[in-house]
């Protein structure tokens, strides 16, 4: 390694090495500050011209992704530069002054529950941001999480996509493919080991990282239940709150369908009574809070049944902290779709009972794409006051608030977010609360993709949403609905009074 790399970076020392190259600490001699940085040298494993050109093209794409991620969130290292030199590839990244979780454990021993919960609380919004860009990290472990000295926030380092690019080879059919699986044995779930990671694969790895911090046990040191295949870990910790234990148990379930679907869902379970955190950006960085699309990364695509969002929805505007929102029982359109599909008659009947609309709301067509702006109807009802009092919560936020209860199976609480008239509608709920719960237990997850205010008044409001339903039967569908909300002064909440398909 030359003392000055690319006629610019003065190498100070080697930080580490591995199968794909080495990592160096360096100084940028082209800057007055002589800024210190980290340089990662990456070596393709295949040595032939055909593979080299493919790797070069993919490396450029992955570098662009790293630049976007680093510029958008201050808990991801910034990418300063990338270049190619003598058939090897280099990334120049921000130096994070801090300590890895592995080193912290070695120095201080196991962490307290409050410390682990704080790390999770501050890291899950970072994962939400990454997933919103269609990226799966694929190598979350204690070595790849650094606690920054300046603000004690966890920083996520060493994304797996670039290393996968370096593992590109040509298969027997002459097509480029990756010869390696990115991830660390023990910390990665079975679907990732099989080369099919999903968003919840990162949550699995994060859950095992938290368990390591609490117990001092690596995944290889933990037993597995021979009957269920689930990891046995709680006997290695003397005391843990039931709420945190339940969150970690769900995060490390062996099958993706049993885990949290999104980072925000896990965060809400971790902080059920607190305001969900969306990020900790610096003043110079923008927070992106759109729900994640189905594309896993530039080199990996997630099947639509595993993704928490719609691939075409590249500019979603619903707050990321509520992408785990769900559907209310008046979701008419899905019921109609289900009745047209060759599904079992029992599911069709239940869907029709739960989702039949009330004729009291007249549907007005959407005249423009749903946006994150207030767009009053051109002819609002004379009885609606133009502006509600300032101390009232936004009616638009009532929809995600309600859905987060649904997706966390808090049916009794969510039932109370429906107006008495809506709850007593015999078409929608022939058996009252029992019909309501019966329907929701058939739904695996409901996603809010977009929300738009149509009318906002002191007592009545109308909100339009785009929703995606994921049923436990494996079916899914996306639809538009318009909700009528009424203000309830007694509970200081907007209640859902009716819904209509658009």
UniProtKB/TrEMBL annotation:
One Gene Ontology MF term: ATP binding
Gene3D superfamilies: Transferase(Phosphotransferase) domain 1 (1.10.510.10)
SUPFAM superfamilies linked: Protein kinase-like (PK-like)
PROSITE patterns assigned: PROTEIN_KINASE_ATP, PROTEIN_KINASE_DOM, PROTEIN_KINASE_ST
SMART domains per record: S_TKc (SM00220)
Polar residues: bias regions: 342-375
Keywords of this entry: ATP-binding, Kinase, Membrane, Nucleotide-binding, Serine/threonine-protein kinase, Transferase, Transmembrane, Transmembrane helix
Top-level taxon in the UniProt lineage: Bacteria
Catalysis performed (reactions): L-threonyl-[protein] + ATP = O-phospho-L-threonyl-[protein] + ADP + H(+); L-seryl-[protein] + ATP = O-phospho-L-seryl-[protein] + ADP + H(+)
Chain ranges of the Protein kinase domain: 9-274
Positions annotated to bind ATP: 40
Residue spans of biased composition, Pro residues class: 377-392
EC code: 2.7.11.1
Keyword ATP-binding: yes
InterPro entries noted in UniProt: Kinase-like_dom_sf (IPR011009), Prot_kinase_dom (IPR000719), Protein_kinase_ATP_BS (IPR017441), Ser/Thr_kinase_AS (IPR008271)
Region (Disordered): 278-313, 342-399
Keyword Kinase: yes
Annotated TM spans: 317-337
Pfam families, sorted: Pkinase
Protein name: non-specific serine/threonine protein kinase
Species of origin: Limnofasciculus baicalensis BBK-W-15
């Amino acid at each position: 390694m030359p003392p000055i790399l690319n006629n610019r970076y003065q190498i100070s020392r080697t930080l580490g090495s591995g199968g794909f190259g080495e990592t160096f600490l360096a100084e940028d001699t082209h800057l007055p500050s002589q800024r210190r940085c980290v340089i990662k040298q990456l070596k393709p494993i295949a040595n032939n011209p055909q593979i080299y050109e493919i790797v070069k093209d993919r490396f450029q794409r992955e570098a662009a992704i790293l630049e976007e991620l680093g510029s958008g969130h201050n808990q991801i290292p910034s990418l300063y530069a990338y270049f190619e030199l003598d058939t090897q590839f280099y990334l120049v990244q921000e130096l994070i002054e801090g300590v890895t979780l592995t080193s912290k454990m070695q120095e201080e021993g196991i962490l307290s529950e409050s410390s682990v919960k704080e790390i999770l609380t501050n890291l899950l919004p970072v994962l939400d941001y990454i997933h919103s860009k269609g990226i799966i990290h694929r190598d979350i472990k204690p070595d790849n999480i650094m606690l920054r000295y300046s603000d004690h926030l966890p920083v996520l380092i060493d994304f797996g996509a670039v290393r996968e690019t370096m593992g590109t080879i040509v298969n027997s059919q002459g097509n480029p493919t990756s010869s390696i699986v990115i991830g660390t044995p023990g910390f990665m779930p079975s679907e990732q080991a099989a080369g099919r990671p999903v968003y919840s694969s990162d949550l699995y790895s994060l859950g095992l990282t938290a368990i390591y911090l609490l117990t001092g046990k690596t995944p290889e040191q933990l037993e597995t239940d021979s009957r269920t295949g689930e990891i046995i870990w709680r006997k290695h910790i003397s005391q843990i709150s039931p709420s945190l234990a339940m969150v970690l148990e769900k995060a490390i379930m062996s099958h993706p369908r049993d885990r949290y679907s999104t980072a925000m869902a896990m965060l809400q379970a971790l902080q059920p009574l607190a305001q969900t955190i969306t990020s900790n950006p610096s003043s110079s960085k923008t927070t992106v809070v759109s729900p994640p699309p189905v594309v896993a990364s530039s080199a990996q695509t997630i099947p639509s049944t595993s993704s928490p969002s719609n691939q075409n929805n590249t500019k979603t505007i619903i707050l990321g902290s509520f992408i785990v929102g769900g559907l209310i029982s008046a979701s008419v359109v899905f019921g109609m779709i289900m009745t047209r599909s060759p599904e079992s008659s029992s599911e069709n009947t239940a869907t029709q009972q739960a989702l039949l609309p009330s004729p009291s709301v007249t549907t007005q067509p959407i005249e423009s794409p749903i946006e994150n702006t207030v767009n009053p109807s051109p002819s609002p009802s004379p009885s609606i006051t133009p502006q509600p009092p300032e101390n009232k919560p936004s009616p638009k936020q009532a929809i995600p608030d309600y859905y987060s209860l649904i997706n966390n199976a808090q049916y009794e609480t969510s039932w109370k977010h429906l107006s008495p008239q809506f709850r007593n509608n015999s078409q929608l709920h022939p058996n009252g609360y029992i019909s309501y719960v019966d329907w929701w237990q058939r739904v695996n997850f409901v996603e809010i993709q977009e929300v738009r205010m149509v009318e906002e008044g002191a007592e009545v409001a109308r909100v339009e949403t785009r929703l995606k339903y994921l049923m436990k039967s494996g079916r899914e569908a996306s639809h538009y609905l318009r909700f009528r909300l009424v203000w309830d002064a007694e509970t200081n909440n907007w209640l859902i009074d009716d819904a209509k398909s658009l």
